[in-house]
Specification:
With 482 residues, the chain is α+β, with helices and mostly antiparallel strands. The protein contains 13 helices and 15 strands.
């Protein structure tokens, strides 16, 4: 089987989400905040030429990696370029910084992920390789959010692993794999599907209660001022005890990690505002069709989950309500958020709109450790996407038993110390969902619970570096054959 190569590439329409991001990005050209990033620590005697072949195999397989954005009149289109061989150059940090200097490697990674993309010129995916020690390298994958999402980053790395391992073991790359559904074809289908009312009427009916009635603006108890915006970030790791408690709640209640952690976030927002009618914006996978699971592109479906909490509800009852609502939303996520904005006359890009005031996300992956021929790899999600200006956002990433998170907050409303205490309070809620499921949510409005509890040592949770994960890797030791 061979690829069909068209000399000038192919043209496809853009999705509504791409159009919105294009408009937002063009307001501040040259910024890097919409870059998505992953790094992979490679351990062992890794073969760079084989990695280069594997990356190029993936570039051929996934058209989104070769896509740039163009305008034709007032229309935004995707131009999928034909495959061209991409050279992967290794940057050796050892001559300048010494053997095993991961602090210098961290700075090199940060510099790489902060280089902006120019969407009309491309490429909109980058691969950089840094050598830190004899048997330690860092592969940095960066993509613009307009052609990628978090799941896409994991799909690309899984395909690179597969191609690399097969070449080492069999001396050849896997047979060329044609995408069952390319992202361009998905965009084409989505535009046609949303244009027909026979498809969208049931979605409009479901979402009407969420978007047709006014949503209250959340007023936080510690808000200092309503003026302007200044971004702040706190990165942290969940203690192993909490990860175990979340797993126990999930198993006891028949819930998912997302439902448990989202329920705790609703209770957290309730405790910070006293508001019963709470709307949380949540990015969902957007991969609902049988052929969409392995598609690389911006398929993410962002939707509002709106809930009314009652003071007399218990933590367990709140979790059940969240589970029911989440499963409904998942069944109706196919219609794009931007289509709903048009259907219900929403001001999507208004920063003062309560529609997107708070956000929650959980990316739940398999364990970050993986085996490769003659070595191993550790996949770190470090995400550089900062998104719009929101008052409070919590982004969680779970890789096996390792849970890391980022609290993004408006420093015009919260001090850094407030953010630390909010994280501690969130951990308290997660713990209480396991230990005291019959406790009423109203207890979190009590002043005695204000801003967390001493059960968690924030100094051990907070990640001081710029990355979610510090590079505390054990050096690879080459073993002689027995």
């Amino acid at each position: 089987m061979m690829y069909e190569i068209r000399p000038r590439g192919e043209l496809f329409p853009s999705t509504m989400g791409q159009c919105r991001l294009w408009d937002l990005t063009n307001r501040n050209p040259g910024e890097w905040e919409d870059n998505l990033n992953s790094i992979v620590a490679l351990h062992g005697p890794f073969e760079v030429p084989i990695l280069e072949l594997a990356v190029n195999w993936v570039l051929c397989k996934h058209s989104a990696l070769r896509t740039v954005m163009r305008t034709r009149g007032e229309r935004l289109i995707q131009h999928v370029r034909p495959p061209r061989f991409k050279t992967i150059r290794e940057v050796d940090l050892r001559p300048e910084h010494g053997e095993g200097n991961f602090a210098a490697a961290e700075q090199a990674v940060l510099a790489a992920i902060r280089v902006p993309f120019y969407m009309s010129h491309g490429p909109l995916w980058r691969f950089k390789l840094y050598r830190v020690a004899e048997f330690e390298r860092l592969l940095v994958m960066t993509a613009h959010h307009i052609v990628s999402d978090g799941i896409s980053m994991s799909i690309v790395w899984a395909d690179i692993q597969h191609a690399y391992a097969q070449f080492v073991e069999r001396g050849q790359l896997p047979a060329p794999a044609v995408e069952p559904v390319s992202f361009g074809r998905f965009a084409q289908w989505q535009g046609q599907w949303t244009a027909e009312r026979r498809h969208t009427d049931r979605y409009r009916a479901y979402w009407a209660p969420t978007y047709s009635t006014p949503r209250p603006r959340l007023v936080f108890e510690s808000a200092r001022t309503d003026a302007d915006f200044e971004g702040g970030v706190m990165k942290f790791r969940l203690p192993a005890e909490l990860e175990r408690r979340v797993r126990e709640v999930r198993q006891a209640e028949g819930a998912t990690n997302f439902e448990v952690t989202l329920a705790a976030y609703f209770i957290l927002i309730f405790s910070l505002t006293g508001e019963h009618d709470i709307s949380v914006m949540c990015p969902l996978s957007g991969r609902t069709g049988p052929h969409a699971a392995d598609v690389v592109g911006r398929l993410i479906a962002t939707h509002l989950i709106r809930l009314r909490l009652h003071s007399g509800d218990t933590l367990s009852e709140t979790l059940h309500t969240v589970c029911y609502r989440v499963r409904q939303v998942l069944a109706f996520q196919d219609v794009p958020f931007e289509w709903l904005g048009t259907a219900f006359g929403l001001a999507l890009n208004d920063r003062n709109n309560p529609l997107d005031q708070v956000r929650f996300s959980l990316e739940d992956f398999d364990a970050g450790e993986s085996r490769l021929p003659h070595g191993g790899a550790t996949h770190y999600e470090i995400g550089g996407h900062h998104g719009p200006r929101r008052d409070l956002s919590l982004y969680m990433r779970a890789r096996g038993s390792q849970w890391v998170g980022t609290m993004q907050y408006n420093r015009r409303r919260f001090q850094p110390e407030d953010a630390r205490r909010i994280v501690a309070r969130y951990c308290d809620v997660l713990l209480a969902m396991r230990d005291h499921p019959d406790a009423p949510v109203a207890q979190w409005l009590d002043d005695a619970h204000a801003y967390g509890s001493p059960r968690f040592n924030l100094a051990t949770m907070e990640v001081p570096g710029a990355l979610y994960e510090k590079f505390t890797l054990e050096p690879y030791v080459k073993r002689d054959a027995a």
